[in-house]
């Protein structure tokens, strides 16, 4: 029925408040980091052209805009996601424990056609704070394995550790999802691609 | 300065516009989903929602049951100042944040038994076969379309909220022609060529119609370039100036237009009123001109059809505006609603108490009729008394295995007296292309207003006889229009979604005046973040 001419990947980042979702996005796209925490304001989605196996794709990474704080994201946020990134803070046990509910929330709200094979990527963030660490790599890997071999990266948005690698994997797995989902996506209109009204099309006859 | 908002589409637009210009917004809704009456649901959720929000269900599953004692206690516990009651026995608390002598705040309970729907009837011949298929529905409680050149789409483009959304053009619009023995569909032509090819009107009528449309475009001040799909000649700059002058000196154009209108045949009047204005024949001329011009400007703008449907349903709109507000710092809390509204002694807004006992102080409160205290529902509001009225929209949702007319999304108007109706009934047909139903099934969303409670089942029977098949399932319900506080257009029976924007802007203007841009464009994502980070780094 349709094949999107330009490959646009929608990636959403989920996880508890304060685990570094916005910082990770910002480190990846803008190569910037700020140590000061401020609950997300002004972050919407960041766009980056990515080269995946010699294919140029546009990756849109959607921030929660702070709506995750009271579990009030709404179903629209999840629509049409090609990959879901789950983030926790290796220094806060609760953020790791909550990965289960974030994953469930995604599967219920987004309702992917093939939940078993939907691409997730897990990021254990803030590994630069080594002496405060409470979630071991082993524990995180075991969880990822149990959920169908989800790729796992240990990252630091501050020191830019593993961020590039993680997002490469995110883009590659999202792209796989995109091609599989093509059959189900109808042709749509983008109101922002504002073309002038095509009066000629009709004016030519009569 | 903080403002509290509750509710649906219109509240979302206000939250976005006020958040964008720097106001602090707290958006609460006791329901577990966004959009309230403009929400979209899968099949199971739909039934639950209608049951919970009707007189039978009373919202137990959504936590809308309020325990009076608990709230009374929570007012005392949460508000440490709460020590006295007013003459009516309502608790009075001190406003802890004012300087000097704190204002006393009087609590007024919110609407404890929020009921939006009445007489919900579910009739199923069979349930959709696979259990999984029930999830693949996106059913609108208040179906709405977007005119391509209407206020909603232009606001989405201007603000940048449109980036969050995808649209699907409506395939065709039509009205039922009951004049012939067997009822048939009159498709509304979508281009000049289609008007001339149309078999439903005579050549004479075609010329009259073109002339009327041309007049409307001229009257509407539409330029040639914007005149859209019908390739109707618009007007040049000088003519427009002249027209402005004519308007000022006494509606010369209108008189000419009325003359033109008088020459229209009955069929053409139906054609224009039902098929283009989506209204009944008694629509006042200026309003009709406005609708005709917006319609003609919408044709061919993004697609042949004048209308766009939201992919995944109409609730994507309020959610998009909520996201805009959140991006600009708005706080969003679902599953938490107001239990008390707090007012100062001078009657102005002071804040709210949530159903968990938390107090939020705010100088501005926008409240949907859903939560509005009963005492305030009847008081006239500052937007004019014409909005204070009781109306009912009768609605019906059908799931069918056959499509009305050609495949695809479409809008059909059943003129008065098609069955036993006295006002037009709108029928929106949606299918998989908008992700409204699984492939092979069709949703028929019927609605009609100002009839009191009107049973739409005769209209469904008519549609069934046209398609030669009976519906798999029907859900009939009545949507009560209750007005008050700031009146929401969420429940209005309009076809186009632009009304929400108009009312939100009117209120926005009353609050902040004219110097601020309504729904100012969101900054480019990158620059937005940069600025934020710069601020932090400093």
UniProtKB/TrEMBL annotation, chain A:
Q: Which organism is it from?
A: Guillardia theta (strain CCMP2712)
GO molecular function term, any single one: GTPase activity
The record's Gene3D superfamilies line, in alphabetical order, gives: P-loop containing nucleotide triphosphate hydrolases
Q: What UniProt keywords are attached to this protein's entry? A: GTP-binding, Lipoprotein, Nucleotide-binding, Prenylation
Query: What is one term from the GO cellular component aspect held by the record?
Result: chloroplast
The record's comment on protein family reads: Belongs to the small GTPase superfamily. Rab family.
Q: Which CDD domains match?
A: Rab7
Please, which domain of life does this record's source organism belong to?
Eukaryota
Q: Read off the Pfam families from this record.
A: Ras (PF00071)
Instruction: Give its localization.
Output: Plastid, Chloroplast
Name-wise, this protein is Uncharacterized protein
Is Lipoprotein set as a keyword in this record? yes
InterPro entries in the record: P-loop_NTPase, Small_GTP-bd, Small_GTPase
Does the keyword field hold Zinc? no
From TrEMBL, chain B:
Which Gene3D superfamilies does the entry mention?
Answer: FAD/NAD(P)-binding domain, Guanine Nucleotide Dissociation Inhibitor, domain 1, Guanine Nucleotide Dissociation Inhibitor, domain 2
Any single GO BP term: vesicle-mediated transport
Q: Tell me a Gene Ontology molecular-function term this record carries.
A: GDP-dissociation inhibitor activity
The region annotated as signal peptide is none
A GO cellular component annotated for this chain's UniProt record is: Rab-protein geranylgeranyltransferase complex
**Superkingdom of source:** Eukaryota
Similarity-based family: Belongs to the Rab GDI family.
- Name-wise, this protein is Uncharacterized protein
**Organism of derivation:** Guillardia theta (strain CCMP2712)
């Amino acid at each position: 029925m349709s094949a999107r001419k330009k490959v646009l990947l929608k990636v959403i980042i989920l996880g508890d408040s304060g685990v570094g979702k916005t910082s990770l996005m910002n480190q990846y796209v803008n190569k910037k980091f700020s140590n000061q925490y401020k609950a997300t304001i002004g972050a919407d989605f960041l766009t980056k052209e990515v080269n995946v196996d010699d294919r140029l794709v546009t990756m849109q990474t959607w921030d929660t805009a702070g709506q995750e704080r009271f579990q009030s994201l709404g179903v629209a946020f999840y629509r049409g996601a090609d990959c879901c990134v789950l983030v926790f803070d290796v220094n806060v046990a609760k953020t790791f424990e909550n990965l289960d509910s974030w994953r469930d929330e995604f599967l219920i709200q987004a309702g992917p056609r093939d939940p078993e094979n939907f691409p997730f990527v897990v990021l254990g963030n803030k590994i630069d704070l080594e002496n405060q660490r409470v979630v071991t790599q082993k524990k995180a890997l075991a969880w990822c394995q149990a959920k169908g071999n989800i790729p796992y990266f240990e990252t630091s948005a501050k020191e830019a550790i593993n961020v590039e690698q993680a997002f490469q994997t995110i883009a590659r797995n999202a792209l796989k999802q995109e091609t599989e989902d093509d059959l189900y996506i109808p042709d749509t209109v983008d109101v922002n691609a504002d073309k002038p009204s095509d009066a000629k099309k009709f004016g030519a006859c009569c | 300065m903080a403002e509290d908002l509750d509710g649906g589409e219109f509240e979302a637009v206000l939250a976005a516009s006020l958040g964008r210009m720097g106001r602090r917004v707290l958006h609460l809704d006791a329901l577990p989903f966004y959009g309230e009456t403009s929400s979209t649901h899968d099949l199971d959720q739909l039934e639950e929602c209608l049951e919970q929000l009707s007189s039978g269900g009373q919202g137990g599953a959504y936590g809308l049951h309020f325990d009076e004692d608990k709230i009374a206690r929570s007012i005392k516990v949460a508000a440490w100042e709460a020590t006295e009651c007013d003459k009516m026995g309502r608790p009075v608390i001190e406003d802890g944040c004012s300087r000097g002598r704190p204002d006393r705040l009087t609590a007024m309970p919110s609407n404890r038994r929020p009921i939006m729907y009445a007489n919900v009837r579910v009739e199923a011949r069979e349930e959709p076969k696979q259990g999984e298929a029930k999830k693949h529905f996106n059913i609108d409680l208040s179906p709405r379309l977007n005119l391509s050149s209407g206020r909603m789409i232009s606001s989405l483009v201007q603000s940048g909220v449109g980036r969050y959304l995808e649209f699907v053009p409506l395939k065709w619009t039509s009205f039922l022609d009951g004049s012939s023995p067997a009822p048939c569909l009159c498709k509304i032509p979508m281009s000049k060529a289609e008007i001339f090819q149309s078999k439903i009107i005579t050549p004479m009528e075609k010329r009259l119609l073109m002339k009327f449309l041309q007049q409307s475009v001229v009257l509407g001040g539409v330029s040639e370039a914007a005149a859209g799909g019908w390739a109707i000649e618009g007007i040049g700059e000088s003519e427009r100036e002249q027209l402005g002058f004519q308007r000022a000196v006494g509606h010369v154009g209108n008189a000419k237009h009325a003359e033109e209108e008088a020459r229209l045949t009955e069929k053409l009047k139906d054609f224009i009123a039902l098929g283009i204005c989506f209204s009944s024949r008694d629509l006042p001329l200026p309003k009709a001109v406005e609708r005709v011009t917006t319609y003609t400007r919408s044709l061919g703008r993004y697609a042949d059809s004048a209308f766009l449907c939201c992919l995944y349903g109409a609730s994507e709109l309020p959610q998009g505006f909520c996201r805009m507000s959140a991006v600009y710092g708005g706080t969003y809390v679902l599953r938490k609603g107001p239990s008390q509204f707090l007012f100062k002694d001078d009657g102005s807004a002071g804040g709210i108490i949530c159903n968990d006992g938390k107090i939020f102080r705010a100088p501005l409160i926008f409240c949907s009729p859903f939560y509005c205290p009963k005492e305030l529902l009847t008081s006239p509001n500052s937007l004019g008394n014409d909005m204070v009225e009781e109306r009912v929209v009768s609605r019906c949702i059908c799931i069918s295995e056959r499509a009305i007319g050609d495949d695809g999304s479409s809008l059909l108007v059943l003129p008065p007296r098609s069955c036993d109706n006295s006002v037009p009934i709108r029928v929106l047909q949606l299918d998989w292309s908008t992700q409204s139903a699984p492939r092979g099934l069709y949703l028929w969303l019927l609605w009609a207003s100002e009839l009191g409670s009107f049973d739409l089942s005769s209209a469904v029977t008519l549609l069934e006889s046209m398609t030669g098949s009976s519906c798999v399932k029907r859900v009939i319900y009545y949507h009560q229009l209750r007005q008050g506080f700031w009146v929401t257009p969420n429940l209005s029976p309009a076809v186009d979604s632009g009304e929400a924007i108009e009312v939100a802007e009117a209120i926005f203007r009353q609050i902040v005046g004219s110097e601020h841009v309504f729904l100012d464009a969101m900054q480019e994502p990158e620059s937005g973040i940069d600025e934020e980070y710069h601020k932090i780094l400093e």
